[in-house]
């Protein structure tokens, strides 16, 4: 019993940042509602450059490119400021790492007269950001990475170039509500029978993992899992043809021993795909306000799956 409660406490701690994903989106809505980004409306920038300081933020920013394709204007995800960057461009710095490159990029972009936005961690980059930089506040109780923060920051900048800020705020708040509902279903105190995150973790236990389906979601979740100690890859479904064999219905691990090769299991995100043996489909239980909300909700589920123990017990 003591071990069960200790496991539960450990899961609660790991789940803490996941539980804040809805609040991260709501915080972005607050920035927009404050008018801090009103200067973006009606702009026609030559390009929007996203400088990502870590792997999760890079994958999250790239997810926006995928979700919004075809893009109305160039959106470049990079780890340094391009040489061409000037007053006609917009810079967004995202990520949890305080880096000299990010610090220098913000000041260089500001000195060239460009609009600059920072959605990063607390620290020297934020403390010494140019006066004109729009700095997204950091939630005081969230310490880890947040795919939702990066995705909404980048998507919101793109939206505000063309949409009224009130519409953007409304959509962000609706998205935050949907994520909060998902977070409730993922809470560590909910057991395997009613927790889709635990069911996902149980499905891949002891297997090699590949994520497929919606590419934006698959790549972010694969990155999160790998960095949380669950090595995973993402691939288009066409690349899986013949890669995953049909499970042997006659294999008994108690009589025959473990399989000769560690099994390969697929997780299919927000898609209906046939011909992928033993795959587990992941979809939103409720109707979402749009593709971005669907992606954020499922990414939150994937994030939560990294917080559970391999063999969860009922508490």
From TrEMBL:
InterPro entries referenced in this protein's UniProt entry, alphabetically: SIS_dom_sf
SUPFAM superfamilies: SIS domain
GO terms assigned for molecular function: carbohydrate derivative binding
Biological process, per Gene Ontology: carbohydrate derivative metabolic process
Listed name of the protein: Uncharacterized protein
């Amino acid at each position: 019993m003591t071990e069960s409660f200790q496991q539960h406490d450990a899961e609660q701690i790991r789940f803490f940042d996941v539980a804040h994903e809805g609040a991260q989106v709501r915080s972005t809505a607050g920035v927009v509602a404050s008018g801090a980004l009103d200067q973006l409306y009606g702009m026609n920038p030559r390009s929007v450059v996203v400088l990502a300081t870590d792997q999760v933020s890079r994958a999250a920013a790239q997810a926006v490119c995928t979700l919004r394709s075809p893009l109305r204007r160039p959106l470049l995800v990079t780890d340094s400021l391009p040489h061409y960057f000037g007053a006609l461009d917009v810079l967004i710095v995202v990520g949890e790492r305080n880096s000299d490159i990010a610090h220098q990029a913000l000041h260089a972009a500001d000195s060239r007269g460009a609009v600059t936005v920072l959605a990063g961690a607390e620290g020297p980059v934020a403390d010494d950001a140019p006066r004109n930089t729009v700095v997204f506040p950091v939630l005081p109780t969230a310490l880890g990475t947040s795919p939702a923060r990066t995705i909404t920051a980048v998507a919101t900048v793109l939206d505000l170039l063309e949409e009224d800020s009130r519409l953007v705020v409304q959509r962000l708040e609706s998205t935050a509500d949907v994520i909060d509902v998902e977070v409730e279903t993922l809470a560590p105190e909910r057991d395997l029978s009613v927790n889709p995150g635990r069911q996902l973790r149980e499905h891949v236990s002891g297997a090699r993992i590949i994520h497929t389906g919606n590419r934006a979601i698959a790549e972010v979740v694969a990155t999160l899992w790998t960095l949380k100690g669950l090595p995973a890859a993402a691939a288009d479904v066409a690349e899986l043809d013949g890669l995953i064999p049909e499970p042997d219905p006659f294999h008994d691990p108690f009589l025959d021993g473990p399989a000769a090769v560690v099994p390969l299991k697929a997780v299919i995100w927000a898609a209906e795909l046939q011909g992928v043996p033993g795959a587990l489909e992941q979809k939103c239980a409720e109707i979402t306000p749009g593709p971005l909300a669907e992606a954020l909700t499922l990414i939150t589920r994937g994030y939560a799956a990294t917080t559970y123990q391999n063999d969860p017990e009922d508490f």
